[in-house]
Records
---
Amino acid sequence: MSPVPPLAQRASPGGSPLPEGWTARTATADDLDRAHALVAEDHLDQFGEVDYSHDDMVEEWSELDPARDAWLVFDPAGTLVGYAKLNPRKPHWLECTSTVHPAHRHQGVEAWLVDRIGQHARELLPRSPPGERVQLAHIFNGRNEQEARLLESRGYAFVRRFFRMGVEWKTPPPTREPPPGVVLRVFQPDREAAALHALHELSFADHWRHTPEPFEQWSAELRSERFDPTLWFVAEAGGQLVGFARAREFSESEGWVRVLGVHPRWRRRGLAQSLLLRAFGELHRRGRHKVLLGVDSDGRSGALQLYERVGMRPVRLIDVYEKDLGLPGPSQGQPGET
């Protein structure tokens, strides 16, 4: 058992108080199951389904320190009613989310969590490398207008919208041959990991808020129990990798295409569609007839139009609100100031 951190004060320094008798503390590894159960209840209430698995949270918590970067709120009976986390993996783009149990919304928990995240982000500010401004990004359901208003009251502003896209194949999906000279096949991690990492960085270098990821960090998934190389597909031309699609099984009936990338010189030739349909086909063969993925709503890259051409439609809106924390350096303002 992990030691349980002491309960926090009812109010974040400089922030909103919790209701009388409610308490909060940072998380431990032993809290993961109930934190995921809370997120699942919230998803069921907001979306009618859960598309965030227990494994997703395990992976997410591997990128942060729960005792420093995650918070839990309890009602007077000791029931978990609120959860928030801040992922510090990208030092200049601190990503955060918060969740409140449907029965306990609008009682001050949302404000407490947002204020606590803001306080923690400022505590992390001196650790970011110098020279680039740090953004605190809050990601949430794009249809939640009350959360948007709360964030705006704390100095956040809307910057981006993403779509969760979905398609369900009653019959096997179509296929598309790759461009001449290109071969599609399964990824070979033992000898191609470095090459795929380099292609990933090149493919996403021009994407919004892309932060280069060191190989050791990028390759962590290859060492995880859930890694399935038979759902990672690559496109090879002239002995070089020029495209890739990374998929995974999500549930007994659903699959995900997590990442789809093409070398800049090979774009606009139908290669991305060939890779995407190859992933769809393998997921369908395994009984995952519904497939989901995420995409930037800004259509200039052509990705949104590609997904629409293969029959995908938006099933959820995901908004990003940001707050500029300034340049890294000594902490600014009073502790807890948001």
Note: The chain is about 30% helix and 30% strand.
---
Amino acid sequence: MTISFAHHNHGKGKVRVVKVFREEADLKGKFGEINEDVRHYNVQTILYGPVEESYTKGNNQKVISTDTQKNTVYCVARDNKFKSSEHFAVLLSQHFLKQYPDSVVHEAHITIEEDIWARVEVGGHKHGHAFKKTGPCQKKVVATCSRNADGGTALTLKCGVQNFTLMKTTNSSWCDFLRDEYTTLPDARDRLLGSSMQVEWEYSKEFVKGGLTTEFDWEEMVQRIEDSLTFTFCGPPGTGVASSGVQQTLHQMCYNALNDIEGLDSMWISAPNLHNIPFDFSKLGRVGHGDVYVATTEPHGLIEVKLVKRCTPQMIKSAL
């Protein structure tokens, strides 16, 4: 019998970084006030390397301490100019492979969750240095930098949003599904449809390379994707769009985003239902009017889908 490693890694989690952006060119706003910006990051570092002896023999000479990894996060945040969590994650992943040899680390996996702080508006004007936290939606970025056999490095970048919550009050049905002796759920010709979704997309390698060497606006890209997902879920104002089930809606959301927005290789959505069940007034001798519901999240349906796409170099170039 042989017992061997399936995998191993070590890192630091819950490294919370607040970064205040004080660019000289942006210090004076339209009304003469100080104009700053702020970001709140929750960083996780995971490193992979040939450090098996730290597990088998207690030899820690090649192990980058998790406290060192924490300090590195703050130093990279201090020493570099960046405008997005995407760029910050890439800088961190690349730093570990530049700082340490292959005998210590051969892959760095960086995850950043970003709390969104919006600029406060006072009297119709955006405040220069005051913010309010929005939510519960969070942005999530995953950057992985690994060494190639030829000595170079490969970079992948995934992004997404967590707790992306949408609801519509009509134009949704769930009918004609498989029935057997275990089925009690009736057809729903019209129902409330809601979900707090986890969404993740991966950028093509060519797109990432181009975006990091230009003044590409990664946050605008995220907004474009969110707008696409929202419009597909909701449909046009007034008329909306019919849904025959969460499966159909999720597929269309992924398909439209991949089809309309260049630079994306894949799109994944996990959608737990936010159930809203009509309250049963009959037990109280009353007739329901279809406007009062019991909100529940457990147990919930859980639907997931992932679509993939491959872009040509010309498509990538036109997107940047």
Note: The mean pLDDT is 93.
